[in-house]
Amino acid sequence: MTTITTWFTLGLLGELLGTALLAYGYTLVPERTRRRYLLLVAIPGIAIVAYLLLVLGVGAIDGGGHTVYVVRYVDWLLTTPINVLYLGLLAHANRETIGKLVGLQALTIVFGFAGAVASGALAYALFVLGAVSFAGVVRLLYGDVGDAAVVALSDVGASLYRTLRNFVVVLWSVYPVVWLLGASGVGLMDVETASLVIVYLDVVTKVGFGTIALHAWLTMETVTATDRTAVTAD
Ligand code: RET
Question: Ligand 1, residues 109, 184, 205: which to mutate, most atoms within 8 A of Cβ?
Answer without folding.
Answer: 109
